[in-house]
Write a sequence for this structure.
């Protein structure tokens, strides 16, 4: 799959995923597993929700 997540988006997703996971652990809730979604998309570099809309936060190199 084509990568469509840029550097800033990736950092935000990692932080958000860790926070959601930590809150889920703190409150002993299964909702903390939702933190895996932003983490996985950040490490894979592709967001499936961006694909139908043609969104890409990757920087494009212009010469």
């Amino acid at each position: 799959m084509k990568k469509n997540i840029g550097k800033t988006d990736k950092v935000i997703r990692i932080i958000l995923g860790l926070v959601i996971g930590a809150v889920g652990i703190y409150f002993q809730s299964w909702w903390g597993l939702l933190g895996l979604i932003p983490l996985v998309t950040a490490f894979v570099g592709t967001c499936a929700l961006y694909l139908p809309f043609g969104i890409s936060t990757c920087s494009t190199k212009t010469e």
